[in-house]
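Why show two proteins at once? Because comparison is the fastest way to build intuition. When a single record is shown, students tend to memorize it. When two are placed side by side, the eye starts asking what differs. So, the first record is below.
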Amino acid sequence: VQLQASGGGSVQPGESLRLSCVVSGFTFGIGQDAIGWFRQAPGKEREGLGCISNDDGATNYEESVKGRFAISRDDAKNTMYLHLSRLEPEDTAVYYCATDIGLCSLSAITYRYWGQGTLVTVSS
């Protein structure tokens, strides 16, 4: 299984970004996998943001990002997206996608396969 995250960049507060995660090694919509989005700011622990179950598309979000961040996917492209809106300087971090067999989880230790991360910088 391989994951490739992209879409990060530098934006101003209040702006939006869409991050992409191309996953190879399993078929979207089939299988008991989950895909999660995480971020890690300098000097902080990796934080779970949201996840999506591969079979039924059910999502779960960390409370602090509900309403601002949203996960979607394009099965034909084996790609998952993280839509970031109303970005704040505190959202500056490296964002990662991860996957493994199991239930949708916001805990990083439940995922064995990780993408390389994409940097999001929010500043004025």
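Second record. Ask yourself what differs from the first in the token line.
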Amino acid sequence: VQLVESGGGLVQPGGSLSLSCAAFGFTFSSYAMSWVRQAPGKGVEWVADIAAITTRYAESVKGRFIISRDETQGMLYLQMNDLKPEDTAMYYCARPAKFSFAQPASNAWDDYTVWGQGTQVTVSS
């Protein structure tokens, strides 16, 4: 079971980046998936979830980020627009251990059973 992120980089405030995550070794379509991030010196912060075509977002990114998935390719995506310096972090795709839209999203690594190596996003002028 493996997740591999790509697409990070350096971008100016107001710019856009698109992150990708390739899933291997499990039936991707059977699982809800998440993006989480961790800034230097801070804890993990949940960013977005997707289960089938239903999505939800952290308030800090709502209206700017779009999570999507391609079931046929086993791919998870995060389109990030109007980026801000506070979006600077290592971004991870992750598979939640348990998932329900009726429950709050998790900011704890222990609540995710699989995550990738991360991709760095830096927003700076």
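One difference worth noting in the second protein: The chain has a mean pLDDT of 95.
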